Amino acid sequence: MIAFIVLFVGIGSSRQLILTGILYAIVAAILSWLQAATMNEAAAYSDAASQTLTSSLILVGINLGVFANPAVNRVIGSWIGNYSAQASFAIASGLFIVALILYWVFVRILKMGQQN
Rounded CA gap, 5 and 20, in Å? Predict the structure, then answer.
């Protein structure tokens, strides 16, 4: 996942179109894998009766994130005084780090609860 964040920062700081395209293709491949892994992880933690609800909530969360992304970038951009594409990728990298930490914490909590 750290490599994913480095790729994101690389896209934001790239000045070459070909390099940006290659990095973006790698990020898109990782994101498609990440979405499938998230669905599998959610299915492992939910029972058979609520798997449809669980996957629907994940998709709603993804769509809300896509919808709110421009507004969040604009607000954070106003805080730092930078609205460039580079700043957008830096912001996205930071938010991804936060999401990764939250995921790790919640998975640890769930695993500790299953052991007790």
Answer: 14
